Amino acid sequence: MQDRPAVDELLAAIEHFLDAEIVPNVPGSRGFHARVAANAVRIVRRELDLQDEHLVAEWERLDRILGPAERPANLKTLAAELRSRNEALCARIRDGHEDDLALIAEHVRETVRDKLRTTNPELLSRSAPLDRQPGVA
Amino acid sequence: MSSDRLTPEEVGERLAAFLQRHHRARSVHIDDLSLLTGGASRQTWSFDAVIQHADGKTETLPLVARADPRKGPNVMSREAEYRVLDAAVAAGVMAPRVHAMGDDSLEVPFFLMERVEGETIARRILRDDDYAAARERMPAQLGTILAAIHAVPTDDLPLQRPEQGLSPAETEVSRFEQTYRMITPDPHPAFELALRWLKRRLPPPAESTLVHGDYRMGNFIVGPEGIRSVLDWELAHVGDPMEDLGWLCVRSWRFGNDDLPTAGVGTREALFQAYESARGCAIDPEAVRWWEAFGNLRWGIITIMQARAYLDGMSRSVELATIGRRTAETEWELLNLMEDTTYA
User: Fold this and answer.
1) Dist. CA A122–CA A20, nearest whole Å
2) How far apart are CA B150 and CA B210, in angstroms?
3) Are the Cβ atoms of A127 and B188 closer than 8 angstroms?
4) How far apart are CA B194 and CA B181, in angstroms?
5) pTM score, two decimals?
6) Are residues B98 and B112 in contact, defined by beta-carbon separation less than 8 angstroms?
7) Above 50 in pLDDT, residue A98?
8) Per-residue pLDDT reduced to its tens digit, B307-323
9) How close A5 gets to chain B, by Cα (Å)?
10) ω into residue B153 within 30 of 0, thus cis?
11) How many CB pairs below 8 Å do chains A and B form together?
12) In angstroms, how far is the first alpha carbon of chain A from the final one?
């Protein structure tokens, strides 16, 4: 077992260093790339926090479309098998019947929403069309 | 050898020697040479050429050199880009004037064009007080400039054209689908839904015109008074003019100004009105909507291409690496655009 700081705490240190010390002091494209790098660290931190939950949810939604399958306990195996299941889903969309597509589209929407919770949660809070936002008729 | 390997000093010396031959000048020296973009698809150098002519007179030319980043096939040849720019300016389009077609001085193809001063960074154009008046004028300007681009004669230009027997829309969908299937490291169910949706709703075959191909915020040089010039013509082709209108409205080019679909500065109505009155024809908003959806798919596939440049070891850029995680943004936008209709 590793000592503190834990993974997320180390990443927070890198993020802070980039944001507070490099970005404000380095002009031009290098400063821009430091900003991009800090954002990449934020993506990694959110992914480490959310990926277990998101991969399991994706697997269970796919069960309802492709039929149930035993979910691998190991995270790496789960990711690899999800990839094959997504290839099957893609083939189904290409060749599938119209009736299937509403259910599939709802699943894809949930999966993309989860990807954005990791990569760009801010976009989710502002990009819902007006008629999907609560309180807007 | 590629021009990646030439040092800035070497690039300056070689440009000076080239210009001296080109102008039959007594001497040329290069001031303020700087690399504007070192992108995967081209390199852009900015500099001032101080030319002492044979008659003894001296002039200073603000110039830009656009060079291929490496030898071998590129998106569009620099010579084709030079000719498109030349034709566009001749037809009255606000674009940089070409200065000279290059030779092998930089070891890769290049040409020189005038440098237009102004701002290209979207964040500044959309937020800074200096550009408040420009933002007022831009929606109409974007329409009239685009109308002028679509009137440029294309018969003599070496451009990609729609495939025989296919409409421009069918050509573009099939071109990008092929690219997507060839390069994607991961399956993308959202893109499969989008391809299916787009193929079932192809816009009616339209006239073919010059299409800029990358007409968006980021490729406009803007001053406090408005747009001064349109850049980056390397994706120009012959196709459906509505493609440029749809691309201009893609959400990514609004840079956070979500309620202003035209490049983050205006409504679609203001853009359409200016375009229609300059071109004297009516826009079919459904066709533009189709091209906007297609534009999101295209941008999504481009994010995969850029991430591939990192994954394949062609570049170590942190920017190219992280752009792979922006693909989901285009998927989300596509799902929203498709939502209110059946996937028939």
Assistant:
1) 21
2) 5
3) no
4) 14
5) 0.91
6) yes
7) yes
8) 999 999 988 999 999 99
9) 25
10) no
11) 87
12) 54
